[in-house]
Design brief:
The chain has 2 domains: 211 residues, Rossmann fold, CATH 3.40.50.720; 32 residues, no CATH class. It is 41% helix and 14% strand. The protein contains 8 helices and 7 strands; from the N terminus they run E-H-E-H-E-H-E-H-E-H-E-H-H-H-E. It has a 7-stranded parallel sheet with strand order 3-2-1-4-5-6-7, sandwiched between helices. The chain binds nicotinamide-adenine-dinucleotide (NAD).
Length: 273
Amino acid sequence: MENNIFDISGKNAVVTGGAGVLGGSIAKHLVEQGVNVVVLGRHQENTMAKVEELKQIGKADVIGVVSDVLDTEKLKTAREEIASKWGGIDILINCAGGNVPGATIPDDKTVFDMKIEDFEKVTQINMNGTVYPSLIFGELIAKKGEGSIINISSMASYSAITRVLGYTVAKHGIDGFTQWMAQEMAIKFSEKIRVNAIAPGFFIGNQNRALLINPDGSLTERSKKVIARTPMRRFGDITELNGAVQFLCSKAASFITGAVVPVDGGFSSFSGV
Ligand SMILES: NC(=O)c1ccc[n+]([C@@H]2O[C@H](COP(=O)([O-])OP(=O)(O)OC[C@H]3O[C@@H](n4cnc5c(N)ncnc54)[C@H](O)[C@@H]3O)[C@@H](O)[C@H]2O)c1
């Protein structure tokens, strides 16, 4: 596979939120490509179930770490465990995140009804939950002098999406952090350390299912608006993030850093008219 610029086999990756819908799918693809994966999840049962599932692929080592992306002490302990087992890592995918129900403003309420605590919860998990693992696991990548960090942004950082203020603010923060960390790594450590983000369009996950799909399986009014703004006229399939992830982790993207790559069926580029 020496001439395959997309080959990522033999690398070591940490996927936060690795037991979630998108993180789990990305972790699976990485293992299928021969990448050793740490599934970092918040809950023991889900995390270990995902580890067992990925081990069945039989192509790479898979480790489960139960941790919290907002708990820096636990993250440091996880980093030491991983470093002693594998020596280092090459890839960090920051997939832990998502919306918080209380921070979604219902149609019959306004921004002035939103609880500040809910705003803080959603900005913490998405923004700090990306920054802390990048600082802690990123140090292993900095020591190695080579690697790739991928953050997960959102369509909410391209243009305003109603109801989700905290989520929007946090995902804008992720884009800014991605650019900032990209320059820091390239200037102070190595041009071979790249930091990018992927901005998924609309994929049906656990957190947005109720907003997009009615209990009878039909589309909600909100999801009809999403589809109308998506030139491909459909939601994404979670496996459609895999290509962008692999590309950004591989030599094929050796001159790409600080980018936010939309994987959105055209949503971010279309005015809807
Ligand atoms: N599903 C979509 O359409 C979509 C679109 C754009 C962006 N995203 C983003 O993709 C990412 C993954 O979303 P998903 O749809 O897979 O959601 P998900 O809920 O299935 O996965 C998120 C995972 O993060 C974990 N997590 C949450 N808080 C944590 C914490 N403090 N510490 C450790 N783990 C924690 C959860 O346990 C869960 O396993 C999120 O950042 C989300 O904002 C999703």
